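Q: I'm writing up a methods section and want to include an example of the input and output format. Could you take the sequence below and give the corresponding predicted structure tokens, formatted cleanly so I can copy it straight into the document?
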Amino acid sequence: MEVDQGLFPRLMVGAFALAILGFMVRGFGQLVVGSSTARLVATPVFILGVVCAVVGFVLSVLVKVGVLDTEER
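A: Here is the clean output for your methods example:
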């Protein structure tokens, strides 16, 4: 299986953007709907950001070990 090299930066930028978005959703949500509802709404965004970071890390380890190949653009 080959992995495109552009996938790693996209996953890491996506994880960073989702983390920032999660903080923004929670902050503005606290102003609008209250603390507990804001946490409930922001949690899936944070989880998606963590999943992106973990997938990027696991893929990079698999490429470094040699299980996966990277495809040049």
